[in-house]
Structures are given as C-alpha cells and as structure tokens.
Amino acid sequence: MNKRSGRKHNFSFPDWMMRELEAEAARLERSTSWIVQRAWKLARAEIARGPRSEAPRSPDARLAALGYPPAPWRSGTMPST
Q: pLDDT in tens for each of the 81 residues of the chain?
C-alpha cells in the first residue's frame, strides 16, 4: 500500500531555515519534503509533551484575569447619569 496521498501543501519558512533545509537535503541526497517529514516524525513526541495552552478566552475573560472589573455595558449595570 502506498502511503503517499499525492496532495501538495505549501509551508512558509524563514529564508535562513529554508537555506538550512535545502543544504541538509543536498547533504543527505534527499528532498526537502523528506527532511521536513523526518523532522516532524522525530519532534512529534517532544512537541506533544510540551505545555498545553488554555482554550481561547474572550477579551473580557483575559481582562478579568488581569484584575480589571467587567465593563458596565457588558454586565447590564450601566450607571445612570
């Protein structure tokens, strides 16, 4: 069974990183695609062990975490003038 999907993907790398990838590919006589795939396979477990990010929070929740009170127009307690 062939594992190649035939799909193409585009990734953006900084110029310096692309030069390193191309140099390593030339040194190993492999494609840059092979280098990226191999790097992913080697790094996947380490990345998975990394810290988990929290679920995205609303701007109000981020401000509350910093100690700011809720905006009055959001809570329905707008002071009367």
A: 456 667 888 999 999 999 999 999 999 999 999 999 999 999 998 888 877 776 656 777 777 777 777 767 665 555 565
Q: Where are the domains of the chain?
A: 12-49
Closest CA to 59 of 73, 48, 70, 45: 70
Calpha distance 72→81 (Å, rounded): 13
**Cβ atoms of residues 35 and 13 within 8 Å:** no
Q: Distance between terminal CA atoms of the chain? A: 74
- Rounded to whole angstroms, the Cα distance separating 18 from 39 reads 13
> Dihedral of the CA atoms 7, 12, 13, 15 (nearest 10)?
120
Backbone angles phi, psi at 5, to 5 degrees: -90, -20
